[in-house]
Amino acid sequence: MIKLTNISKHYRTDEILTTALSDINLSLPQGEFMAIMGPSGCGKSTLLNVLGMLDTPSEGQYEFMGEEIANYKESQLAKIRKEHVGVVFQEFNLIDELSVIENVEVALLYHKMPKAKRRELALEMLKKVGMDHRIKHYPGQLSGGQQQRVAIARALVNKPKLIVADEPTGNLDSNLGREIMELISDINKTGTSVIMVTHSEAHAQYANQILTLLDGKLVSGSLEQSIAS
Ligand code: ADP
Ligand code: ADP
C-alpha cells in the first residue's frame, strides 16, 4: 500500500537547515498496523505528516496505492487525503461551535450528498465508536476520551484505507488510553491500515510493526540497543 524510498525532509528557518528525516525506507502492506516511536524531536510527527500526505518530503519517492506522489502539489495530495486518509491528533481538534454529530458530518461536506445521508453516515460512525448517545453535545461537554472517540468517528466516516494518528492517547489517562487503543485496534481488524506515533511502549504493542526513529533515521531493534551501540 505504501512504499517510501530514500525519503528525507529538511526545514529551513533563518538560514538554519534542520534535517528532520534522513533517508527513510519503509513499506506498509494494506491492513497493517505500524507504530512509530522515538525520543522527542527525532522526526516522528514529520514522518507521520509525510505518510499522511499532510506534508511533502524534500527528497525521495513515496508510492501510495501504486501512485508516485512525492512530487504532488497540495491540491493533488488533498484529493488523495479526502478519499483515502483519516487523521487523528493528540489534541482531538474538534470544532467547539459544532455539535458532536456536526463535527463528524464536516468530514463529508466535500462529498456531494444530501444532508440526510451525511447525518445517517455520521450517526452510523458515532455508533461504532460508542458515542451515539451524545450526538447533540458540544466538545466542551465531553471528557477527553469521548472527544477522541468523536475525532476517530470523524476520521473514519469517509471509510479511509489509512488512518494516521499522532499520539492519539497522549492526552488521556491510562484507562481511557487503553479504551482508545482497543477501538483503533478493532478498526485495524476491519482492514483499515493504521500508522500511529506513540510514546507508550504498551500502546505500541497493539501494532504488528514497530519502527524506531533516532535523529531522523530509522533504527532497527530497540531504542535502548541503538543508544548503547
Ligand atoms: P512530541 O511530538 O515529541 O511530543 P512536539 O510535537 O511538541 O513533541 O515537538 C517536537 C519537537 O519539534 C520540539 O522540539 C518542537 O520544538 C519541534 N517543533 C514542532 N513543531 C515545530 C515547528 N512548527 N517549528 C519548529 N519546531 C517545531
Ligand atoms: P517528533 O515528532 O519526533 O518530536 P518532529 O517531527 O516534530 O519530531 O521534529 C523533528 C525535527 O524537525 C525537530 O528538530 C524539530 O525541531 C524540527 N521541525 C519540526 N517541524 C518543523 C518546522 N515546521 N520548521 C522547522 N523545524 C521543524
From TrEMBL:
InterPro entries: AAA+_ATPase, ABC_transporter-like_ATP-bd, ABC_transporter-like_CS, ABC_transpr_LolD-like, MacB-like_ATP-bd, P-loop_NTPase. It holds the Pfam family ABC_tran. The keyword DNA-binding does not apply. Keywords: ATP-binding, Nucleotide-binding, Transport. Residues 2-228 form the ABC transporter domain. CDD domains: ABC_MJ0796_LolCDE_FtsE (cd03255). This is ABC transporter ATP-binding protein. One of its GO terms (molecular function) is ATP binding. Transmembrane segments: none annotated. It comes from the Bacteria.
